[in-house]
Specification:
By secondary structure, the protein is of the alpha+beta class. It contains 9 helices and 26 strands.
């Protein structure tokens, strides 16, 4: 009897070992690390300022708000990395090759770096007329990028959003006779019936929670940052002062109230402006606007949802387009994703209607639209604007009618392919 029991025991153990050996090895869970750094890029001396029209002749006479470049490094446990960089500039200064300098300094592949501008209209112009600022900008970007890599720490990812009315508006209007009027085209003498479309009022927030370091908060919002130099009489008087516009005060407010580190990314705002009047505040300035937006971000941070973490994946597409002169051209479009969140770069001023469609159609739980990123080809107006050839955004567009809609489809196709 003992021999039978012993035999059964040996057989049971052998089968157990066989079963254990036959089980496929489980892959370790993917973890994510995020680092943050910010450097001051405010010129020490007077500098030619960016802008349009007469603004191009401006030379700064002082500083109203300091300017910064902010870097967010994202790395998964397999070593896949991406870098999101946002600078207080009018555009992404593609001619300076800042991404190339970051790639060389950090080892992150060029195509896995998104560099964008906050689009403040009160920033220096990185050009041949400002060689000292170009060098300062390069040094600031590389310093922030390397420091962000060194600052990486494990995170949990959270998302949140809110609809915030009364801060942005579409700058195209319907006149009493049905014609369309904009800030710089159409009949300005008629009574206005309303806006051609409703503005995108979706505020998106991502928080990377870090156990032993400050959390990193990313903000995605739309609305032209030009309150500091236009609107009120006081703002126009300050048009020769450097400023981050409402973006800086927004960052400052969120950092102070939430004890976190903040990076701001401008969404589709090619056809929308920021109200320089906020209900209850009277005629305001960019600091009031920034604090108001920052308070809304803090509210969102109080009700965040934890989302999945996965490997960092990236994509690039180069759709062939037809330029305004009838020639073939391409645009470089990039995407970065991890788990339930994604980021797409738009090298132009995207209309908020396009941005809304991409965010709604994206397979990801949250998609940041990052405009004026990795290039700047100007405005990309949607179909309805092309019926009005005097429209400023149409007259300055470098591509043919229908390009905005083609790119919208390309973005959604890229995101769906990346998501799998």
């Amino acid at each position: 009897m003992k021999k039978i029991i012993s035999g059964l025991l040996i057989l049971t153990l052998a089968l157990g070992l066989f079963a254990c050996g036959s089980q496929p090895a489980q892959e370790p869970a993917v973890t994510l690390s995020v680092g943050y750094a910010k450097t001051n890029i405010t010129p020490e001396k007077a500098s030619f300022m960016a802008g349009y029209g007469d603004d191009l002749t401006r030379r700064s006479e002082g500083v109203m708000d300091e300017l910064f470049v902010t870097c967010v490094a994202i790395t998964d446990s397999a070593g896949n990395s991406a870098m999101l960089i946002t600078a207080d500039l009018l555009d992404a200064a593609p001619h300076v090759n800042l991404r190339g300098a970051v790639a060389k300094a950090t080892g992150i592949p060029f195509d896995q770096i998104i560099f964008c501008a906050t689009h403040t209209h009160s920033a220096p112009r990185p050009s041949d007329t400002n060689p000292k600022f170009v060098n300062q900008l390069k040094e600031g970007v590389v310093t922030a990028a390397t420091e962000a890599m060194a600052d990486r720490a494990p995170v949990q990812t959270q998302t949140g959003n809110a609809h915030v009315a009364g801060l942005t508006y579409v700058r195209h209007y319907i006149n009493q006779d049905g014609s369309i009027m904009g800030n710089n085209f159409g009949d300005h003498t008629q009574p206005i019936l309303g806006h051609t479309t409703e503005a995108d009022d979706l505020l998106q927030v991502i928080r990377f929670q870090r156990e032993d370091k400050k959390d990193v908060v990313l903000v995605n919002w739309q609305g032209h940052p030009l309150i500091a130099s236009t609107g009120s009489d006081e703002a126009r008087a300050n048009r020769l002062l450097l400023s981050s516009d409402y973006v800086g005060p927004c960052r400052d407010h969120v950092e102070a109230e939430s004890d976190s580190l903040v990076a701001f990314f401008l969404s589709g705002s090619g056809n929308s402006n920021s109200y320089s009047y906020i209900e209850g505040e009277g005629v305001t300035d960019h600091r009031v606007y920034g604090k108001t937006l920052g308070a809304e971000v803090v509210k969102v941070l109080e009700n965040m949802t934890t989302v999945n973490t996965a490997a960092v994946t990236t994509a690039k597409v180069q759709p062939t387009l037809t330029t305004a002169k009838g020639k073939e051209g391409t645009l470089d479009m990039y995407a970065v994703a991890t788990g339930d969140i994604s980021f797409v770069s738009a090298p132009y001023e995207m209309f908020d209607t396009t941005a809304m469609a991409i965010k709604e159609g994206s397979p990801y739980q949250m998609t940041f639209i990052i405009t004026l990123a990795n290039g700047d080809t100007g405005y990309m107006p949607t179909q309805e604007c092309w019926d009005y050839p005097d429209c400023y955004e149409v007259k300055s567009c470098n591509f043919q009618r229908g390009t905005a809609e083609t790119l919208q489809e390309e973005y959604l196709k890229m995101l769906n392919n990346l998501h799998g």
